[in-house]
UniProtKB/TrEMBL annotation, chains A, B:
SUPFAM superfamilies: PurS-like. This is Phosphoribosylformylglycinamidine synthase subunit PurS. Pathway: Purine metabolism; IMP biosynthesis via de novo pathway; 5-amino-1-(5-phospho-D-ribosyl)imidazole from N(2)-formyl-N(1)-(5-phospho-D-ribosyl)glycinamide: step 1/2. It catalyses: N(2)-formyl-N(1)-(5-phospho-beta-D-ribosyl)glycinamide + L-glutamine + ATP + H2O = 2-formamido-N(1)-(5-O-phospho-beta-D-ribosyl)acetamidine + L-glutamate + ADP + phosphate + H(+). It comes from Haloglomus irregulare. Part of the FGAM synthase complex composed of 1 PurL, 1 PurQ and 2 PurS subunits. The keyword Nucleotide-binding applies. Keywords: ATP-binding, Cytoplasm, Ligase, Nucleotide-binding, Purine biosynthesis. Belongs to the PurS family. GO terms for biological process: 'de novo' IMP biosynthetic process. GO terms for cellular component: cytoplasm.
Length: 83, 83
């Protein structure tokens, strides 16, 4: 077994409104920053033991499917690195 | 001017409690997943025009200092990529 960190990034699907990101962008613009767009995402870093990086990614993928992401509104990506 | 995307990742400093991450970890364990630790972070993807990648990173850094992160409890990192 090897120790891995799986990074699961959960984003709203294109077309789903994100009022929090809109307010953040407005607040930055009020501070004088010029920006084209701002998107926000949740990042989960999960430490786990697995036989291979592929097995760790599969497990993180299942965690995203079952709990971390809501498939109706979210897309997610999984990246695995050895600790 | 070139179009860049700056990714600002905002994490709680080590030692700052993160009840939401703890509840998420517990919920995953209740579903039968074994994991060593789970940390959560906020990820902001900011599209902006700048003269260089360095200038874009400086601007994103200032956004983090002034609004996106709370220096008392957060650390942050900035990565810039050309669009």
């Amino acid at each position: 077994m090897t120790a891995y960190t799986a990074v699961v990034t959960v984003r709203l699907k294109r077309g789903v409104l994100d009022p929090e990101a809109e307010r953040t962008q407005e607040a930055l613009e009020r501070l004088g920053f010029e920006l084209g767009d701002l998107r926000s995402a949740d990042r989960f870093e999960v430490d786990l033991d697995a036989d291979s990086a592929e097995a760790a990614a599969d497990r993180a993928d299942e965690m995203a499917e079952r709990l971390l992401a809501n498939p109706t509104i979210h897309d997610y990506t999984v990246e695995v690195e050895e600790q």
